[in-house]
Amino acid sequence: MRLVLLGAPGSGKGTQSQRLVEHFGIPQISTGDLLRAAVKAGTPLGIAAKAIMDAGKLVDDRTMLGIIRERLAQPDVANGFILDGFPRTLAQADGLHKLLTELHKPLSAVVQLEVDYDLLFKRISGRRSCQDCGRVFNIHTAPPSSPPPCDGRCTAPNLVQRVDDSEATVSKRLQVYEDQTRPLVDYYLQRGLLRTIDGDGDPQAVTQRLSSALEG
Ligand code: AMP
Questions:
Q1: Sheet containing 194-198, strands listed edge to edge, beginning at the edge strand earlier in sequence
Q2: Are residues 67 and 104 in the same domain?
Q3: Residue 136 — very low, low, confident or very high, per pLDDT cuts 50/70/90?
Q4: What is the pTM of this model?
Q5: Domain co-membership, 12 together with 86
Q6: How far is 216 from 151, CA to CA, in rounded Å?
Q7: Which residues constitute the domain of residue 78?
Q8: pLDDT value at residue 156
Q9: Which atom, in ligand 1's list, is nearest to the CA of 35?
Q10: 2 part of the active site
Q11: CATH number (domain holding residue 24)
Q12: Domain tally for the chain?
């Protein structure tokens, strides 16, 4: 299974990817996570990407395609992968197509998670993650049990908000999605790969819709 999850920030791509990882036993490749790890490690890539990410803009296509090329060369993708947050532009989608053609590993499907703007806004601005274990919560829809935080996985509360999840940056990111990523819906529709599901509701219900879309 070689899958792209397409959807605006806050549409549930990360949550659903993690659930599919368990189901299919294939890795989630989140370009946002890869960039955040580079920022944390202080690599040249991380240093260059930080300001762009904090501003809610997109890192350039060439850099992103380089990251994906390198990631898809790892042995754990032999049985498939779930791309979460990539591609985000038409140039990235074209680059991905060329790369996968080279590797003789075409995409199996692209699933679009559709969620309306108000809910996206609420989900992103309520998102918090544990600085220690990385687990993601939502103060509106999925708050941590208290105490302990992280449902017992960590010992001390350490919930933080991503800089780019602040309300000021959220509208910018949603606009960037509309302008630069939304055109991928047509791109994949024309190639017969697109399936669209309703991303509203509890994660389990969305996973069910996703599974049916993949089977259909
Ligand atoms: P995400 O966690 O997927 O919302 O990504 C966080 C941020 O990382 C985005 O707002 C972008 O600044 C950057 N980013 C992640 N994936 C990409 C991509 N495919 N192309 C360009 N920038 C990206």
A1: 28-30, 81-84, 2-6, 109-114, 194-198
A2: yes
A3: confident
A4: 0.90
A5: yes
A6: 36
A7: 2-119+168-215
A8: 59
A9: 8
A10: no
A11: 3.40.50.300
A12: 2
